[in-house]
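Section 3.1: Structural characterization of target chains.
Under the original work plan, the team committed to producing a structural model for every single-chain target entering the pipeline before any wet-lab resources were allocated. The record below documents one such target. The sequence was received from the expression subgroup and is listed exactly as submitted; it comprises 321 residues.
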Amino acid sequence: MMPNRFDSTLATHGLPLRHTRTRVLQVNVGRLCNLTCAHCHVNAGPKRKEIMTRDTADRILGWLEQTDIPVVDLTGGAPEMVPDFRYFVDRLTSMTPRRHVMDRCNLTILLEPAFDGTAEFLAEHRVEIVASMPCYSPANVDAQRGDGVFDASIRALQLLNRLGYGHSPGLALNLVYNPLGGALPGPQTELEEDYKRELLSHFGIVFNALYTITNVPVSRFASYLRNNNQLAPYMDLLMESFNPAAVNGLMCRDTINVSWTGEVYDCDFNQMLKMQWRDEGRGLSLWDLEPAQVENREILTGDHCYACTAGAGSSCGGALV
């Protein structure tokens, strides 16, 4: 077994990494997606068959009702493509107390004929949208996500603005920037200013915040780097850019990540690497857990964790420092 260099780095800095009180339940509802993006850590695409079933959804909902976890973060794939997506959101937003739901949306799915009315459904249920938008220029977006994706994303953003997203209370619209290739993202504040200026002046689009997220070298993105002889240099960059100030804000500390089958992980990247929570050698599902027992649990790490602690740090909510 290879030594865990990330754990060694944490130990050198005297930084234990353990769970705090759970604030976010992140549910990866499946790998089905209408796009095949170069940076995708899930290896999602139109031919994937992994999707959450109604039975799994009900078991997750039943477990969640016994907790006070306030935020449910839905990711994929394209979450909206799962047949029970609307059922799941309906149940989440009608719970007492009401759960704040986030949808990690690729934007283009909102324009697909088979998903007509999805944007309106999200607005009606006050679902926060976290939308992938790698750049405000067509060339960079299409290079990372496919031909025509930029234009479709612009139309989807304009649709969301018409529904109140980005400017009405309770309808948050946040964009996500991932850099092309083996590089760290630029300063989040500066990029947000650029995005807001360019999208407003050219397309009349407004949004709330921009999140910069470092690409994690797993699945499809790791293969891309390896095929272009960039994996080793990228790992060196991540390790050299380790920022101890980012550790305290890591999303794995207050998040439980759940797969489409109910298996439990520290984060979505660990899920893709099959680093499942275990107890006495047995893999754990969400319904095996007592919520209070999660606090102070040791977090499983690997070299890929350097991506979340490089530079300004990176989480599902953007830069950390």
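The radius of gyration is 19 Å.
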